[in-house]
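INTERNAL AUDIT FORM
Audit reference: QA-55
Scope: verify that the stored structure record matches its stored sequence.
Auditor: D.O.
Record contents follow.
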Amino acid sequence: MTAEEFLENVLAEQAAETDSDEHADLIEEHDSIATLLARELPDASPGVELGGSLAKGTMVRASFDLDSICYFDNANRHRERLWLSPHCVHAKQASLF
């Protein structure tokens, strides 16, 4: 077995398929974040998209996280709310901290 074949096997073993529990949990959390931001900051028109390895289909089970990318309209007008609210509100509701 070559080094390349070995690495391909390792990656294949660690691939998190789209029907895996890990994938479903991350999608559920992403949807929760998007819903929360839309509810708490309606005037900012938040748009939330998946990013990182989950969006690219390259997530591995040994090491993964959730990259939710958020875009806001009129960000300057809502700077104080955008700066504080999403993190604080999400942390309280998701019991992350």
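Auditor finding: record pair retrieved intact. The chain has one domain: 3-94.
Action required: none
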